[in-house]
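Example for tutorial group B:
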């Protein structure tokens, strides 16, 4: 009896120890299977208490049944815990029901003996659960702990089932209790090993992840040992870029820390190690780079305490503040601009930090709408604006997709408002923010009504146009067509709606079938380009080709989808008229060319008649006058000759025209060998109204130089230039003759040649000047 009591107490103590151990671990690690194991082993201890009372205390035999029931429930909790450990979830209700149902089958076999039936149910159920759990642990979980626990549970399950067969043997019953003590301890050891192996693997994965994140960070991640003398025992590779030191240089030299920080900060680290200094978890520090440059860093740090309760190390992050200081100063200068755009805007806006989901700034319009005081909504968690968690979670999903989100918000007095929230993601200083604009849907409903009215107005305008208008979506399908377009193409509007435009109205032209890859409209739609005033062919319902002048523009809808608008008009009549006009134009060109040719011939005939008449005259003023007149008429004839030769009917190139005319004047003059003529003429387009006056003025001035210059004993030199000077054209004729004796009174003379020059200058709306400069220089300017 005493031995059985000792064995029972040992088993109870072991089970309770396990129960409290799992419960303690649960409070630190929050794993659900630990709670299930704690309850299971606690119930197992309670079952042993009831069983011991039933066999040791007279009159307490009925407690054996209670012990069986508690053992049954204990097996359920232990099995559920192992299932959750392996698969990460609780077993399904169907699985538990099936297992419980199967274990009642042996109970039915012994239904004539209720006590035996209850024992059969409990032992077979518990044995089956332990057996299955043991096999599952051996098969599915790696590690020594799982193999120890799996083997122990498998053996324990077999023994529980066999115990039913040897229940009447007192010697075996004592051995069974001792075996239970052993298996409880072995199972407990295996389960604890299994749990800590799992924690070790998770910790190793977390450590590896943290190490990768640390090495990829742009900021400096560091660890400082405070004892016996502060030194750096870890630093990330970003230190090379920011400070110039490689991690190896810093870690191999324990004095590197004292070179990077000043003496005051080093002394403070020593005081921290002795727990005698104020521990600032965040501050701004100056670090000295390898090149001697002093840089500012924002330090965030955490202390690690030793067994003596004093700090023994420090880990932290150092962020470069050099560029941020400049950015801060720039932002400070732009504060007034920020206030104007953000704070004073009538559009309700706020800025939310994504890490904490708190509002860090809101403008006056938003504060007023949500009935907050002037201080605003800063520090408020954005969840407080939503009626439910579902709305809040849906809003977070919409921010990731960049879509507008409609929902109900609540005001501080409980009033509900319908709003649309638009969000834009942005990053600054290593943190993510979302910029949110809020629209009151009460006013939105009014705007929607107004928008509907505007759409109807636009549809009416499009329907009233004489030009065809077709709307095409990104797949080339027609979603809108006005009456004019349908009439030109020979369709009813309903016949073309929701049909592919390429397959119905733009699949053929004069050269034959147009492949889809060669469709200019589809290509413009895909590329986002436009078509301007292009002549194309559209296909009539009867298969005929319609020449059209089309314009095509692409745009994006509210859903950010491409759409296109095709505007065209039938140009059949225009092409016919154009052909008639071109024919008429060709006829007119021919007539005008013939006219120039005949005018030139008439001038030539007049010159010939005058030349014949001059030959009969003796040398006299009359003959000289006739010769000068002939030269003037030839200048005019030359204009028509060039127009005839160049096929131009209104303009002449100044260079070819003037140089040819000057050459003709030189050849026609007496003593041409004694005259040196030079030119500097730019090629400028001249109209007929310019060409003839310029030619006559040159003719008159050239003739005057021949008559009056007389630079004996030198040869006569005449220089003629024509150029563009800004908006003016400048004609200059100069000679090396004697010049004018009385240049002041020359303008008042009324000689025939002078009158011609003045008249032609007025015709050009220009002005002419005369000056003696190594001879006579005449300058004509006109626009």
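The residue assignment follows.
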């Amino acid at each position: 009896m005493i031995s059985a009591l000792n064995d029972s107490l040992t088993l109870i103590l072991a089970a309770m120890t396990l129960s409290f151990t799992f419960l303690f671990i649960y409070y630190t690690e929050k794993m659900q299977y630990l709670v299930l194991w704690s309850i299971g082993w606690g119930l197992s201890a309670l079952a042993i208490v009831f069983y011991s009372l039933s066999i040791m205390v007279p009159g307490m035999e009925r407690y054996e049944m209670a012990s069986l029931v508690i053992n049954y429930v204990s097996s359920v909790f232990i099995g559920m815990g192992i299932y959750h450990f392996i698969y990460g979830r609780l077993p399904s209700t169907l699985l538990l029901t099936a297992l419980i149902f199967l274990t009642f089958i042996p109970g039915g076999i012994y239904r004539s003996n209720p006590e035996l039936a209850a024992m059969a149910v409990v032992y077979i159920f518990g044995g089956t659960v332990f057996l299955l759990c043991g096999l599952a642990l051996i098969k599915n979980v790696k590690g020594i702990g799982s193999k120890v626990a799996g083997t122990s549970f498998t053996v324990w399950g077999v023994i529980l089932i066999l115990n039913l067969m040897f229940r009447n043997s007192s010697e075996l019953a004592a051995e069974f209790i001792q075996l239970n003590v052993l298996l409880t301890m072995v199972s407990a050891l295996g389960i604890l090993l299994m749990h800590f192996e799992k924690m070790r693997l998770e910790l190793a994965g977390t450590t590896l992840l943290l190490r990768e994140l640390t090495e990829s960070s742009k900021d400096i991640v560091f660890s400082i040992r405070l004892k016996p003398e502060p030194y750096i025992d870890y630093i990330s590779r970003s230190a090379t870029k920011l400070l110039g030191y490689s991690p190896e240089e810093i870690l191999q030299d324990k004095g590197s820390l004292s070179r990077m920080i000043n003496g005051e900060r080093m002394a403070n680290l020593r005081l921290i190690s002795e727990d005698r200094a104020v521990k600032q978890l965040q501050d701004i520090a100056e670090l000295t780079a390898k090149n001697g440059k002093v840089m500012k860093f924002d330090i965030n740090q955490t202390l690690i305490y030793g067994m003596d309760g004093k700090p023994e190390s420090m880990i932290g992050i150092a962020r470069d503040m050099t560029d941020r200081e400049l950015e801060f100063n720039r932002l400070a200068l732009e504060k007034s601009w920020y206030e104007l755009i953000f704070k004073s805007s009538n559009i309700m806006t706020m800025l939310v930090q994504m890490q904490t989901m708190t509002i860090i700034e809101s403008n006056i319009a938003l504060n007023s709408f949500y009935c907050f005081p002037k201080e605003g909504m800063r520090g408020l968690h954005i969840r407080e604006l939503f009626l439910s968690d579902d709305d809040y979670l849906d809003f977070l999903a919409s921010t990731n997709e960049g879509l507008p989100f409609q929902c109900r918000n609540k005001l501080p007095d409980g009033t509900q408002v319908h709003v649309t929230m638009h969000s834009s993601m942005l990053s600054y200083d290593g943190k993510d923010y979302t910029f949110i604009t809020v629209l009151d849907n009460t006013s939105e409903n009014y705007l929607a009504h107004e928008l509907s009215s505007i759409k109807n107005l636009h549809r009416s305008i499009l329907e009233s146009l004489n030009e065809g208008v077709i709307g095409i979506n990104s797949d080339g399908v027609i979603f809108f067509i006005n009456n004019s377009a349908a009439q030109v193409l020979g369709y009813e509007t309903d016949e073309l709606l929701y049909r592919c435009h390429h397959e119905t109205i733009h699949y053929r032209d004069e050269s034959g079938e147009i492949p889809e890859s060669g469709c200019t409209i589809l290509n413009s739609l895909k590329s986002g380009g436009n078509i301007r005033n292009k002549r194309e062919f559209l296909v009539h319902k009867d298969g005929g080709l319609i020449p059209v002048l089309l314009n095509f523009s692409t745009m994006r809808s509210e859903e950010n989808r491409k759409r296109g608008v095709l505007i065209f008009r039938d140009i059949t009549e225009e092409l016919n008229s154009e052909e008639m006009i071109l024919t008429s134009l060709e006829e007119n060109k021919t007539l005008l060319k013939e006219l120039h040719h005949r005018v030139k011939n008439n001038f030539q005939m007049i010159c010939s008649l005058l030349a014949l008449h001059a030959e009969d005259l003796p040398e006299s003023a009359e003959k000289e006058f006739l010769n000068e007149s002939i030269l003037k008429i030839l200048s005019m004839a030359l204009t028509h000759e060039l127009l005839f030769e160049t096929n131009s009917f209104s303009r002449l190139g100044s260079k070819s025209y003037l140089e040819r005319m000057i050459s003709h004047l030189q050849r026609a003059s007496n003593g041409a060998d004694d005259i040196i003529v030079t030119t500097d003429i730019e090629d400028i387009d001249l109209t007929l109204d310019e060409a003839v006056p310029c030619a006559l003025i040159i003719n008159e001035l050239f003739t005057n130089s021949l008559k009056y210059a007389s630079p004996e004993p030198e040869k006569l030199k005449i220089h003629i230039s024509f150029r563009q000077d800004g908006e003016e054209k400048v004609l200059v004729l100069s000679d090396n003759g004697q010049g004018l004796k009385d240049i002041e009174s020359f303008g008042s003379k009324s000689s025939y040649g002078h009158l011609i020059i003045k008249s032609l200058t007025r015709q050009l709306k220009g002005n002419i000047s005369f000056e003696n400069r190594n001879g006579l220089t005449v300058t004509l300017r006109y626009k």
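The CA atoms of residues 44 and 74 lie 6 Å apart. Compare this with the pattern of hydrophobic and polar residues in the output above.
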